[in-house]
Design brief:
Elements: H1 2-40, H2 46-78, E1 81-85, H3 91-100, E2 104-108, H4 113-119, H5 129-135, E3 139-145, H6 152-171, E4 176-182, E5 188-193, E6 196-201, E7 213-217, H7 224-236, E8 238-239
Parallel strand pairs: 2-3, 3-4
Antiparallel strand pairs: 1-7, 2-5, 4-8, 5-6, 6-7
Helix pairs in contact: 1-2, 3-5
Keywords: Membrane, Transmembrane, Transmembrane helix
Transmembrane segments: 21-38, 44-65
């Protein structure tokens, strides 16, 4: 059903551009004919033709704008971009994606402290989404930089995250959870939950939740280099 909807959406986009192009051509030809008639008209018909010609020119400009807009929207659909976020959404947005995961969750960031606190807190009952995902058999992977590339404050947060994740890994009986470290400064923030991806940059001295992100699908061409980057980093990273 989902495949049908996506195919229908793409076909609709192509058809919209096709028909807009046809209408644009008709209006252009009509404007050209009116211009020729206007040049050959007498004083009686000239004002009427002038009005029609002006209307055609305005309509022509509007159609050009709409056609360009439709092409841009079609590009976004082809990239399977759902939303462009000026900043990372709060706990509720991520929680829904974690709660819906059935196969895998991959994260690359700085310390993972906020993620662990929000979804795997040892005492808070409203922060158990990650633990519940593990019970469903979801496999979880975390990628973070070595402490040499962290600020003093982030070192403390990362240490607590490592301690908590190690504890969870020891207690998990169904899914798997693992954290690895890479030896360079973080460059990308990556969150992949089954088919959904939130991808964005990591800026020095900027809290991750205040950075922009793109919500797209795992199979999109936009997500492909990020996924390849994650897999490459994971293969070269050191286990904790």
């Amino acid at each position: 059903m989902m495949v049908f909807k996506k195919t229908y959406s793409l076909i609709s986009g192509f058809l919209n551009i096709y028909w807009e192009s046809v209408v644009l051509g008709v209006v252009l030809v009509t404007a050209l004919i009116l211009f020729i008639l206007y040049r050959q008209s007498d004083e009686t018909s000239a004002p009427l033709l002038s009005g029609f010609l002006t209307g055609c020119v305005i309509l022509l400009l509007q159609l050009c704008f709409d056609l360009r807009k439709s092409k841009e929207l079609l590009k976004l659909k082809q990239l399977r971009i759902k939303r462009i976020l000026p900043y990372r959404e709060g706990k509720g947005f991520y929680e829904s994606l974690v709660a819906e995961a059935n196969h895998s969750i991959d994260c690359a960031g700085i310390t993972m402290s906020r993620f662990v606190d929000d979804f795997a807190h040892p005492r808070r009952g409203d922060s158990q989404a990650l633990l519940q995902a593990l019970e469903r058999g979801v496999n979880v992977r975390f990628l973070v930089p070595h402490e040499n590339y962290l600020s003093e404050a982030d070192k403390v947060r990362a240490s607590k995250s490592i301690e908590r994740i190690t504890q969870i890994a020891a207690e998990t009986r169904t899914g798997t959870i693992e954290m690895r470290v890479f030896n360079h400064s973080p460059a990308h923030s990556i969150f992949i939950s089954d088919d959904d991806c939130l991808l964005g940059p990591v800026f020095p001295d900027v809290v991750s939740k205040d950075s922009p992100a793109v919500h797209t699908l795992k199979k999109s061409s936009f997500a492909k280099p990020y996924i390849e980057y994650f897999e490459s980093e994971w293969g070269n990273a050191n286990s904790i």
